[in-house]
Amino acid sequence: MIKLSIFLTLTLLISTSTASVQDFCVADLTGPQTPSGYTCKPPANVTAEDFVFTGFRKGGNTTNIINAAVSPAFDAQFPGLNGLGLSIARLDLAPGGVIPMHTHPGASEVILVVQGSLVTGFVSSANAVYVKKLLKGDIMVYPQGLLHFQINGGGKTSVAFASFSSPNPGLQITDFALFANNLPSMLIEKTTFLDDAQVKKLKSVLGGTG
Ligand SMILES: *[C@@H]1O[C@H](CO)[C@@H](O)[C@H](O)[C@H]1NC(C)=O
Ligand SMILES: *[C@@H]1O[C@H](CO)[C@@H](O)[C@H](O)[C@H]1NC(C)=O
């Protein structure tokens, strides 16, 4: 009887430990993206390439309205980090470039400036403002979900890397949410206290209608 129960305990331990050890869940990008990430690619299909991302060798294209580029290495671009609770992005800001006020609903973020400088900050839920100028080598953290921004006030291109506490941090840019869709101008004016001319101007710049 004792032998049987030891045997059963051992069997249970072995099966439990086998079941709980799953080193990785490389994203199967052919399947749907769910709130808990992608389903796993069969382990036999996983290669070293799944754990490597080479898209940061060159900076993003900053010839655009914000004079800046965000190049994400989230789970959709970098399948190996599916399920691992982190991700990374490269930020390129030409002189005068700006990453407009935005939030990542799903992640906190740490940013490291590797070239140039940035003026950056965030606004807390209590509407307190935390702004600093970061030089090359400096790091700042933005707590999850809070509005934040980056501006390159210097004379040369600034480069930074941002690391996130989720493989899919999400990105909501306030101006795009307000002025780059078909939310009726009347509702925007009512809910933001902006005047009609300003709302129409921003809609035309950012491609909004209505
Ligand atoms: C895994 O590899 C097999 C054989 O190459 C292929 O048929 C199958 O579609 C692959 N599955 C996924 C999810 O990549
Ligand atoms: C950068 O984007 C602009 C505007 O879309 C485009 O005209 C230009 O060719 C792009 N440059 C490169 C190097 O891809």
UniProtKB/TrEMBL annotation:
UniProt GO molecular function: manganese ion binding
For this chain, the annotated S-S bridges are 25-40
Presence of the UniProt keyword Isomerase in the record: no
Q: What residues does Mn(2+) bind to? A: 102, 104, 109, 148
Task: List localization entries.
Answer: Secreted, Extracellular space, Apoplast
One GO cellular component this record assigns the protein to is: extracellular matrix
Annotated binding of oxalate, by residue = 104, 109
| SMART domains in the cross-refs | Cupin_1
Per the database record, which ranges form the Cupin type-1 domain? 54-200
Signal sequence, start to end: 1-19
User: What's the family?
Assistant: Belongs to the germin family.
The name on file for this protein is Germin-like protein
- Its source organism is Erythranthe guttata
